[in-house]
């Protein structure tokens, strides 16, 4: 089971994934104003590749955005590709007109 912990401050934050207490991945973001944040980096430890770690962190970021009325700008290639593949997650993306 993948556990995702969230850390956040005024400028940036991250979602950190753990499997059996060991760090499996990290997704970082930077705030772009008060209403949106930019996912700028995703990394998964080599031992956990292909186990859905990146997607779990992305889902945690989507959940955070939905619960707090925020939007996401996915600059990280992994996040961008995952949003493109999953239409059901795109409601939290920043509208191009707003960017």
TrEMBL record:
Pfam families on file: Acetyltransf_CG
Acyltransferase among keywords: yes
InterPro entries assigned to the protein according to its UniProt record, in alphabetical order: Acyl_CoA_acyltransferase, Gcn5-rel_NAT, GNAT_YJDJ
Known EC number: 2.3.1.-
Gene3D superfamilies (UniProt xref): 3.40.630.30
Origin superkingdom: Bacteria
Keywords: Acyltransferase, Transferase
Spans through the membrane: none
PANTHER family xref list: BSR4717 PROTEIN (PTHR31435:SF10), PROTEIN NATD1 (PTHR31435)
Protein name: GNAT family N-acetyltransferase
């Amino acid at each position: 089971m993948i556990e995702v912990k969230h850390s956040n401050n005024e400028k940036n934050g991250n979602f950190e994934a753990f499997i059996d207490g060991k760090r499996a991945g990290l997704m970082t973001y930077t705030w772009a104003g008060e209403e949106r944040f930019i996912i700028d980096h995703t990394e998964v430890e080599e031992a956990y590749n292909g186990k859905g770690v990146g997607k779990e962190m992305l889902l945690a970021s989507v959940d955070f955005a939905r619960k707090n009325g925020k939007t996401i700008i996915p600059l990280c290639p992994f996040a961008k590709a995952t949003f493109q593949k999953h239409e059901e997650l795109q409601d939290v993306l920043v509208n191009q007109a707003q960017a």
